[in-house]
Write a structure and sequence with these properties.
CATH architecture of the largest domain: 3-Layer(aba) Sandwich
Number of strands: 13
Strand order of the largest sheet: 9-7-10-6-11-12-13
Shape: globular
Number of domains: 3
Order of helices and strands: EHEHEHEHEHHHEHEEEHEEHHEHEH
Largest sheet: 7 strands, parallel
CATH class of the largest domain: Alpha Beta
CATH topology of the largest domain: Rossmann fold
Helix content: 25-40%
Bound molecules: cobalamin, guanosine-5'-triphosphate, magnesium ion
CATH superfamily of the largest domain: P-loop containing nucleotide triphosphate hydrolases
Length: about 425
């Protein structure tokens, strides 16, 4: 589906496929090839990465409300592994999500027959043309995203977000989009999930250039949240860009999300589907759904990698304000002083982090950015962070600042790793 060519007001939603690799034994290029090919054919690929347990794949499939799970396996053990994923999906009441995949020459015909009996939808063998495989996937795994009263817990929430995404459309003209947004408000029964309380949740928007470390930093902040709020739940809405030529997308923020495996984390990826704001057009409705669920103390919204002019969260008042506070994340290689002056979000962000402080340019960057913030005269403090390192004191301080703004319990310090309490 090409956004540029489509003129329909509400184009069919792209198929969302979750891909993962159980163990990477050196055969890492196959999943990359498959992901790229899927996106090239207009699919949204939620990529989980390597070394994924069956429970991790199942959790992600539920929260992402994936149409289908695709597993690439070259390390052996496929008969047991695929069965485990299928069984866990069924056991959790999500057996409607099919599981399929491939492993080149490592999965034999006899293996595939047995796997089919055990519930795997199908296996693609070496030699299958990529074109025919893509055509079959698009034909067989498309589905209408309808409300489903049987879905419980995270799947019910996930389906409400899917419906919000579909309703927001992509190429709808602004007037139609506003109508669809108001239809997509939580008064719409399709977007209501079982409420556990009144609307709540402190919403923090996280923006910054592509690759600055937003997702990694969010993951480290998640760890601090889990540690310091023993009963709280956190939601992450991770926006990534759709390709304007094909309509497909590689939604890759889960690759950095180690702590998304915790029971108290809800993680959902959103493709921009032609929206040029740095967020999916469904983001306002999605935030509403999460808030009205009453389940979350903190809701983090990651924008796509944004440029100098962007205002994804409406913090300058030109459009609806979507967040309670905003965090702008920069890496030390932003260019020079003139580039810093151009970045609008540095004027309005409540919090600013210079990430990748392990980089040789960080020292100079820190001085330049702090000077830029001083010129704003708003008392903005620069938080130096190294998100790639666990227990970074800069991330501790940043979390403390967020907790203060959001009325959350502050971290007790990063000396203890957060325990991964998972149910399966
Ligand atoms: C490239 C390759 C390598 C490269 C990997 C490079 C990399 N960075 O990935 C290198 C040279 C490193 C390598 C090394 C080895 N390899 Co090798 N390798 C291959 C080869 C030729 C292609 C794999 C590939 O990436 N294909 C590209 C994908 C897209 O195509 P495909 O694999 O044919 O998959 C099809 C479908 O299965 C499907 N598919 C695959 N995954 C998925 C996922 C989803 C979601 C979907 C929908 C579909 C799908 O898509 C394709 C459609 O045509 C395969 C042969 C084969 N075809 O399997 C052997 C193969 C997998 N390797 C093999 C072996 C033995 C090895 C080595 C042990 C060799 C050695 N003695 O050192 C090492 C082990 C690596 C290690 N442990 O470190 C054997 C495995 C035998 C077995 N039964 O286990 C194979 C089958 C070759 C053979 N016939 O003997 N290998
Ligand atoms: N050296 C170093 N690398 C980091 C740090 N934080 C993140 N990275 C790495 O930077 C790369 C990009 O990180 P992400 O967290 O995916 O960045 P992002 O801003 O979310 O990227 P997009 O969502 O694509 O815009 C990854 O390889 C991370 O491991 C850091 O503090 N130091
Ligand atoms: Mg990211």
């Amino acid at each position: 589906m090409a956004f540029a060519k489509s003129r329909r007001a509400t184009p069919a939603a792209p198929l969302r496929i979750l891909t993962a690799v159980p163990v990477c034994d050196g055969h890492d290029s196959a999943v990359t090839t498959i992901n790229i090919e899927l996106a090239r054919h207009g699919l949204e690929v939620i990529y989980l990465g390597y070394h994924q347990a069956a429970s991790a794949i199942v959790r992600a499939a539920i929260q992402e409300d994936a149409n289908v799970v695709g597993i690439s396996s070259y390390n052996g053990g496929h008969i047991v592994f695929f069965k485990e994923v299928v069984d866990q999906l069924k056991k959790s009441g999500n057996g409607d999500i099919p599981v399929f995949g491939g492993g080149g020459g490592t999965i034999t015909l006899a293996d595939a027959r047995l796997m089919k009996k055990q519930g795997t939808d199908r296996i693609y063998f070496a030699g299958t043309s990529l074109e025919s495989m893509m055509a079959e996937i698009k034909r067989d795994f498309a589905r209408a995203a309808k409300p489903n009263a049987r879905f419980k817990g995270d799947r019910a929430l996930a389906r409400a977000l899917t419906i919000a995404e579909c309703r927001a459309g992509s190429l709808t003209p602004p007037s139609a989009r506003n109508r669809s947004r108001s239809r997509g408000g939580v008064s719409d029964p399709a977007l209501q999930v079982k409420r556990t309380g009144s609307a709540r949740g402190f919403v923090l928007g996280v923006a910054g250039p592509g690759g600055a470390g937003k997702s990694t930093l969010i993951d480290e902040l998640t760890s601090r949240f889990l540690q310091s709020n023993p009963a709280g739940r956190i939601a992450i809405l991770a926006n990534d860009p759709s390709h304007p030529d094909t309509g497909g997308a590689i939604l890759g923020d889960r690759v950095s999300a180690i702590y998304a495996q915790h029971d108290r984390v809800f993680f959902r990826s959103l493709a921009t589907r032609g929206s040029l704001t740095g967020l999916s057009a469904s983001a306002p409705a999605a935030i509403d759904v999460l808030k009205k669920s009453g389940e979350f103390d903190l809701i983090l919204v990651e924008s796509v990698g944004v440029g100098q002019e962007s205002d994804p969260f409406g913090i300058f008042g030109g459009k609806q304000r979507l967040v309670d506070a905003s965090l702008f994340v920069l890496a030390p290689y932003y260019g020079g002083l003139i580039q810093l002056q151009k970045i609008a979000l540095l004027n309005g962000a409540d919090l600013v982090a210079l990430n990748k402080c392990d980089h040789p340019m960080a020292h100079t960057a820190r001085a330049e950015i702090q000077a830029r913030l001083n010129q704003n005269g708003k008392g903005q403090i620069l938080h130096p962070t190294t998100a790639a390192k666990h227990f970074d004191p800069g991330v501790d301080q940043l979390f403390a600042a967020i907790a203060k703004l959001g009325g959350l319990t502050e971290s007790t310090g990063g000396e203890k790793p957060c325990r991964m309490e998972v149910s399966s």
